[in-house]
Request: fold
Amino acid sequence: MMILTRYTEPKYRTIHDAKENELELLKEKSANSAWKPGYHIHPGYGLMNDPNGLAYFNGEFHVFYQWYPFGAIHGMKHWAHVKSADLVNWERLPTAIVPVEEYDSHGAYSGASLEIEGELYLYYTGNIKYNAEERSANQCLAIMDKNGDIRKHETNPIIKGVPVGYTGHVRDPKVFKKDDRYYMLLGAQRSNLTGAIIVYESNDARNWTFKGELDLELDLPDSCYMLECPDYFELNGQDVLVVSPQGLEAEEHAYQNLYNVMYVLGELDIEHLTFKVSSHHELDKGFDFYAPQTFEGKNGERLLFGWAGMGEIDYPSDKEDWAHCLTTPRELDIVNGRIIQKPARELKKLRKHSESAELRLEDGSKEWSPGSVQYELEISLQSIEAGTFGIELFASETESLVLEFNRSAQAVTLNRENFKEKFGGEHGFERSSKLTIGETVNIQIFVDRSIAEIFINDGAVVFTSRVFPDVESTGINVFSDGKLNGSYHRHELSCRSLL
Reply:
């Protein structure tokens, strides 16, 4: 039996190990970044990744997220914590989980939450590293009461180690209740280095028994070596599984990122460990979207936050010692057998000033420069006779993010190559999606300094992408090679709640 000796490396230290004024200096360094989002959840400093423990609890929205304080690298992960009464104005709270115990000695990894008897149970993975290559994982529990106080459970870890037949890559617990029993889904890697989802069960949500591996009826390639961040929920009478596979092979209009996200519709038989698949698709077509998590909102709606980032890529903000943000909250629905994503209705509270105008193009472009990179743009295009048309965002003489529709190809592409601050080029500067393009196209876009979220045809296709523009790159340009009519509404958005 291997005896744990703590693997030491400079990045494996917690906020309790910070030197005098170290955290304050990190905060000051990134505080005035021109790329810091205004209304997206982002770190004050350091690196943010997966959203965790999402909940509407005790009359407030709670978002936890993976956080490494000491720079823009993936080091010792904590759970940071913000809350909001309205999904718009967010308040930073003390760090929720600091990995100081032997059972989470190398990081408090991702997980989800569940309200039980008036308390919020926060499930997470305790990462354990023996050396640079060998690792294990514990499943752990922290509990938040109605006063917001968080304590680690006295019997942690609630699941020690990993089952036989799997590597140390077992993580990201998703817990739910079904037929008076609790179930935990975990992303896992088999000993043959292929991805899987495993299941534990419990009578009380604290004491767990290994049940087995979920038979997910997907023909995943052997190159898929890990299934991260499983999320299960019911929506419109269907079972939905969202998962983040690693190692998928790229397709012409799908899975073009290094790591990707898919959703699966079908029927879960948890007792017999089967998920009968009716369809599966990529969830977001943009460059920067991973590890999403959903939860039930105030009015029973299904809300989603995703990590607007991507692993193993250097971002321009790294040099300012901060990295990444979350997406805006999105409301999910199922329409014609596909999940659609729409910006949460609460985001309308951000609107401070609006302007509207007609768009009539014969062959050319219409440009305007709002002088802002924090806005919502709604464009409705009708009577489209053009072969190609689209929108340039963050536009200037030298820069632009280009969204282009091609009717003959029945496809839409997003290109971010035209920026001085290029990044991620090793994985390509263009992303695309199939799209039925008729005579009408509706587009809703949220721009927030260094992120654009693009929702096409009421959320049928979504692109989430980070860009890092020059300060003068604030223009918007609608272009066409033929005739089209339409209108636009631009809403100036104002919020800086997480300085």
